[in-house]
Amino acid sequence: MLEYTKADGIMIARGALGNPFIFEDIKNYLQNGETKKQRTNEEILKVLVKHINLEVEEKGEYTAVREMRKHIAWYTKGMKNSSNIRNAINTIDDKDELISVLTEYFNKDMNI
After folding, report:
1. What angle do CA 15, 20, 22 make, to 5 degrees?
2. Do 53 and 44 contact (CB within 8 A), yes or no?
3. How many C-alpha atoms does 23 have within 13 Å on its Cβ side?
């Protein structure tokens, strides 16, 4: 479509919510013609934990953990047993507990 319209760029918008990989996927497609790469649970968890830590660094644990709830919902949208993780994280106030619950989800619940 970029070639057809000769557009100078594209807008990502809501496509990036919970999917920070979209930028790499688009870059790879435009440069190499490679289609979307399937991410492993380990890759998604690693990025999610980094996101949590950056958010805590920027806003403090109290605010960050609460704000990350919506981001985690976006990251896990459409995944197996995702409603379970969304329910679990909505009562968590501690960063370490949040990461622990997410780690268990990505290592256990996703493989059921």
Report:
1. 60
2. no
3. 6
Which is it for the CA torsion 15, 17, 23, 24, positive or negative?
Answer: negative
* Cβ atoms of residues 49 and 102 within 8 Å: yes
Rounded to whole angstroms, the Cα distance separating 65 from 53 reads: 9
Burial grade of 11 (CB within 10 A; 0-12, 13-18, 19 or more): exposed
> pLDDT tens, 46-86?
999 999 999 999 999 999 999 999 999 999 998 988 999 99
Give the amino acid at 74.
Answer: W
* pTM (two decimals): 0.83
The predicted-structure confidence for 6-25, as pLDDT tens digits, reads as follows 888 888 888 899 899 999 99
Burial class (CB in 10 A: 0-12, 13-18, 19+), 61: middle
Whether the CB-CB separation of 28 and 22 falls below 8 Å is answered with no
Domains of the chain (ranges, CATH numbers) = 41-111 (1.10.1200.80)
